[in-house]
Amino acid sequence: MFSLFKKKNRPADTNPINTYDKKELNNYFNNSYKCPIKWFWYQTNPEIEHDSDISIDVGGVPVNLSTSIFIKSGRWVSRSSRFSYAAWHFLDPNRDETKSLIINVYKSAGLNHLDTAAFRHGLTDSCNRVKRKHPRLSKWVDRRLTLLDLLDNVPTSLSKEFKGNLTLLENSVIELLSTINNISNNSIQKQADNIISSSLQVTTVITEKILSANSNGCWFSANLMIPSKKKVSHKYRSENATNNMQIADDLWSNLNTNSDKILIIVATTTDSNYEGFWVPDFGQERDIPHSPYGCNEAFLYSTPSPIFMNDLREWNHDTVSSDINNTWRKSLDILLKDNAFISIPIRVTDVRTKKLFTIAILNINIKLPSNVSLYRAYHQKWLETVQSNVNDFALKALYAYMIKRKVFSNEYPALYSGHDEWDKLI
How many Cα atoms within 13 Å fall on the side-chain side of residue 117? Predict the structure, then answer.
């Protein structure tokens, strides 16, 4: 009878929390996943790590015991609690995602007697237990665990491996420039397109090599964006590019923007069809203090910026109108036919100030199978390694594009970077 009036429990929410939603993550940590007790009944002291003896009086008879027995016993008994404590601090959303976080957790949990492999294995197991017990943290746990790759897979330069590709592309650009007045326009376009396609294709290979521990089934493509201006040219040689430009015109037409600057896709790998699509350069907007993510963030702050459709960062609704936010989301639906993309700033040196500045944006589009993750792309250490390795190849694609722009005049969008030595390069 009483069961009729028994209050039914609501089913628990198991939807994973967005890894960029620090407010919701903190709320979950505060209410549902609190820090385990630091249960250390002994204190590891490096000075007594060796086998020194201590004497214990047992019934009037002195018994000599090795201190290492107590230390090893304490470690064994408290091992699980120490890894649980380490996992909570490792997953704490308020801590920076750097290698120093791993080192601090390693020491503070009293696990610095373990070698790197044993520590990584134990921490991974403990974090996976957290993921099973707290499914709402599953994305966050996977994202943080990728940090452990820094322990044994330190990002390095791939310049030696791809030096031959770069030399070949450099020679192709020089050869095209030297014959520009002696061959037909169609030949110039064909050679320039080959340089662009080859250069961008190498950037996808490099990106995949650096970011994917297991890339089976992944598909990478690339496109090149330049800063330009609205209405500079609507006479595109490519019908597909003209159509994409019109789609962008229609998409952004209702927004009142303060600047006529845009970021427009001018070149792609052969398996991509985004050429001609553009977005406003929101970094020039006085009413938007923070640039949107992706190409705008990469261009304004000169830092790689990833976007994942299943883990999307939202704009700050207090500073960005709903119209802009909604239109930006629509643009992602167009650009993100794949699962994700990474916008990478392509930088050159200012001849006057000798400082680096961003001249273009390389977008790497990624299609991921359901069983493959790309969590390295969340971490700046890996993204910076991608940037440093693809920069020269993307510049070769830009050179080839500028040659086409010179030959075909207004039939391709012009570069408006604010740096004359580049805007009037040819």
Answer: 0
CA 361 to mean position of chain CA atoms: 14
CA 89 → CA 34, 82, 157, 313, distances in Å? 10, 11, 31, 24
Distances in whole angstroms, Cα of residue 198 to Cα of each of 173, 278, 319, 361, 383: 12, 23, 41, 17, 22
Bridge partners for 66 per DSSP: 53
Q: How many residues does the chain have?
A: 426
Residue ranges of the chain with per-residue pLDDT less than 70: 1-12, 38-78, 153, 213-216, 231-237, 256-259, 283-291, 315-325, 334-338, 371-372, 410, 425-426
Distance between CA atoms of residues 347 and 388, nearest Å = 9
DSSP state of 5: G
| Beta strand ranges found along 14-97 (DSSP E) | 53-58, 61-66
Q: Which two tokens stand for residue 389?
A: 């390795």
Of 190, 229, 268, whose CA–CA distance to 413 is shortest? 229
> Would you tell me how many other CB atoms lie within 10 Å of the CB of residue 307?
22
Nearest CA to 130 out of 158, 164, 97, 92 is that of: 92
3-state secondary structure of 264: strand
The pLDDT assigned to 308 comes to: 86
Beta pairing partners, 366: 220, 340
User: Alpha-carbon distance 49 to 178, whole Å?
Assistant: 71
Report residue 110 CA to chain centroid gap. 32
Contact between 109 and 116 under an 8 Å Cβ cutoff? The reply is no
Q: Which two tokens stand for residue 203?
A: 């950037």
What does pTM read for this prediction? 0.83
